[in-house]
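Sorry to interrupt, but I need a hand with the structure work. I would like you to pick a protein and set down its sequence and fold. Please put the record directly below this note.
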Amino acid sequence: GLELELPGPPEVNVGRYGPTGDFILNLYYRARIISGEARPADDVAALRWFPIDELPPNLAWDHERAMLNRLAEQLRR
């Protein structure tokens, strides 16, 4: 439900996941909301925003936390 502006290219992260060591490719986009309203789709139970310096303890993946910590550091500069 959001229209976004992407001010730059994505950050790319390649890693391994799970007991079989499958490769994963993650693309992280920094975006600005132009219009619309955020709402969860049928594949999530809830949607919420949080301050970059107050990350929830239960993020799904370690690489998400690392990426958000890098973003927080960039914003502090």
User: Anything to note?
Assistant: The longest helix spans residues 62-76. The helical segments are 62-76. The chain has one helix and four strands.
